[in-house]
Amino acid sequence: KGITIGGTHYSANITQNSTNEYNITLKTRSLLGDMIMLHKDKGAWYFSVLSVGFGITLFMLYISGLMITLFANKKDRSKQFAVLGVGVVVTLLLAYLSL
Known about the structure:
The chain is an alpha+beta fold and about 100 residues long. The protein contains three helices and three strands; from the N terminus they run E-E-E-H-H-H. The chain has a three-stranded antiparallel sheet, with no helix packed on it. Helix 2 (about 45-70) runs antiparallel to helix 3 (about 75-99). Keywords: Membrane, Transmembrane, Transmembrane helix.
């Protein structure tokens, strides 16, 4: 009901109550509210692309976890932690840019 403008972090809504009376509502979300809006896919398009990438990655991690369990390869632990760290940095960067 009414017109809403704004983004993930801030929004403004205007509704008409009567002929010459309007109700304006302003919302500034907290960090938790921003995270919920990103979860609801209300951010920029590149965070949506990241979410599809996460879905594919979860499937690949499941399969690779089974393979690691079968072969127990422990010599490349530093590379595995480096890739994990890069993934966390990219996720935080895209979340920040989407707000």
